[in-house]
Design a protein that fits this description.
- This protein is 81% helix and 0% strand.
- By secondary structure, it is mainly α.
- The longest helix is centred in the middle third of the chain and has 54 residues.
- 1% of the residues are buried.
Length: 97
């Protein structure tokens, strides 16, 4: 179960990186159609909203990475304990190499 969670989070991070980040870049690259106050103000607001969305994605990515790392650490600990238990059942000790 933990391995599937880690894989799913990695898939989500890839999706954000490949799809949503591209959309966020588009949302921050508007250019005014003319040199009038309305166009300039609209574009400034639109680009600011795009930057805000980009900041939101940054926070989502940071949190997902934190969660993925925590699940990976739990998985690694579980697998290590499982391996040690299997070795003990076989009568093999890690020090007997």
């Amino acid at each position: 179960m933990l391995k599937e969670i880690v894989t799913e989070i990695d898939d989500i991070l890839d999706w954000i990186s490949l799809d949503l980040r591209q959309q966020a870049r588009v949302l921050t690259s508007f250019v005014p159609m003319g040199d009038e106050v309305a166009s300039i103000a609209y574009v400034q607001d639109a680009n600011a909203a795009g930057r805000s969305y980009n900041n939101y994605l940054d926070s989502v990515v940071a949190e997902l990475k934190r969660q993925r790392d925590a699940f990976q650490q739990a998985l690694d600990t579980y697998q290590k304990q499982e391996h040690q238990a299997a070795d003990q059942l076989k009568g093999v000790h890690p020090h007997d190499d």
